[in-house]
C-alpha cells in the first residue's frame, strides 16, 4: 500500500470510521473525516454509526416532504435518529412503533392491539403514512412498515438487518398500488465526504445531546456494556482521559 494512502492523526478534529478496537497513530485515510474544529468531540463522536444511519435513512432515502406523516418502527438510537430526521424535514406527525412506549409522544405498541399494526396505523392516519422507516431487523416489522404506507405515494425504508433465513412476504397488490420499498446502509451517507456536513447540521439545528444518556471513564467501561444490555441508555460516551 502506498504511503500516501495513510496519514498521521495529527489533527484532533476527526471522526474515526470503522476502526479496529486498538488504534495507534497511523490509520488509513479512508477512515478519517475532517470536521469543523469548533464541533465538540464529546458530542459528534456518536455520529460515526447508528445516529447517522437513522438520520440519513429519513433525510436521504425516505425524503419526507414538509407536513408529511412518518412512522418509525423501533425506538432505539437508530429509530430515534430517524425520528429526528423526520422532525428536521418538517413532518407534521411522527408515530413510533415499539414494545416500549416510554420517551416518545405518540407510540403504537403492537401488543396492545388485536389486529396487525399496519391496520392500526392506516386507521389512525386515514389510509396510511406518507413515509415509514424500519429500524428493528424484525421481518414482521419490515412487512408492517411497508404495508402501513399510503397507496399511491407511500415510501418505506428498511434499515434493520434481518436473520439470514427470513423471507419478506407481502401481497402483490401492495406493489401494484404504488407503494415503494427501499433499503439503505449507513443512511446513504458517504462517510468521508458527508459526515462533515452532518456535523454542520448538528452545529445548526440537529438535537444530538438527547442521544447521549450516559458518560463513563474508560476504567468503568463495563458499565457502558451494562447500560446497553439492559436497554437503559441510547449512547454512552467513554472518556479515555478520565
From TrEMBL:
Keyword list (alphabetical) reads: Metal-binding, Zinc
Q: Which GO terms describe its biological process?
A: formaldehyde catabolic process
Superkingdom to which the source organism belongs: Eukaryota
Name the GO cellular-component terms: cytosol
| Residue span(s) of domain Alcohol dehydrogenase-like C-terminal | 77-196
InterPro entries per the UniProt record, alphabetical: ADH-like_C (IPR013149), GroES-like_sf (IPR011032), NAD(P)-bd_dom_sf (IPR036291)
Decide whether keyword Zinc is in the record. yes
Claim: Zinc is one of the keywords in the record: yes
**UniProt-listed Gene3D superfamilies:** Medium-chain alcohol dehydrogenases, catalytic domain, NAD(P)-binding Rossmann-like Domain
GO MF, any single term = zinc ion binding
Q: How does it assemble?
A: Homodimer.
Q: What is the designated name of this protein?
A: Alcohol dehydrogenase 1
Q: List the source organism.
A: Quercus suber (Cork oak)
Amino acid at each position: 500500500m502506498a504511503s500516501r494512502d495513510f496519514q498521521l492523526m495529527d489533527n484532533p478534529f476527526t471522526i474515526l470510521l470503522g476502526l479496529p478496537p486498538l488504534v495507534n497513530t497511523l490509520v488509513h485515510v479512508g477512515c478519517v473525516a475532517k470536521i469543523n474544529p469548533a464541533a465538540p468531540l464529546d458530542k459528534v463522536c456518536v455520529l460515526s454509526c447508528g445516529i447517522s444511519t437513522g438520520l440519513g435513512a429519513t433525510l436521504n432515502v425516505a425524503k419526507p416532504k414538509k407536513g408529511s406523516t412518518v412512522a418509525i418502527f423501533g425506538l432505539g438510537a437508530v429509530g430515534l435518529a430517524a425520528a429526528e430526521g423526520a422532525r428536521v424535514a418538517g413532518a407534521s406527525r411522527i408515530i413510533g412503533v415499539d414494545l416500549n412506549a416510554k420517551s416518545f409522544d405518540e407510540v403504537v405498541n403492537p401488543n396492545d392491539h388485536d389486529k396487525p399494526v399496519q391496520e392500526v396505523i392506516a386507521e389512525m392516519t386515514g389510509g396510511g403514512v406518507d413515509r415509514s422507516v424500519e429500524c428493528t431487523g424484525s421481518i414482521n416489522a419490515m412487512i408492517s412498515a411497508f404495508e402501513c404506507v399510503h397507496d399511491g405515494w407511500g415510501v418505506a425504508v428498511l434499515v434493520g438487518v434481518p436473520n439470514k433465513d427470513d423471507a419478506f412476504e407481502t401481497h402483490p397488490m401492495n406493489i401494484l398500488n404504488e407503494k415503494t420499498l427501499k433499503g439503505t446502509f449507513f443512511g446513504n451517507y458517504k462517510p468521508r465526504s458527508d459526515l462533515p456536513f452532518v456535523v454542520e447540521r448538528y452545529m445548526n439545528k440537529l438535537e444530538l445531546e438527547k442521544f447521549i444518556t450516559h458518560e463513563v471513564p474508560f476504567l468503568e467501561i463495563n458499565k457502558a456494556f451494562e447500560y446497553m444490555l439492559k436497554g437503559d441508555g441510547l449512547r454512552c460516551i467513554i472518556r479515555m482521559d478520565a
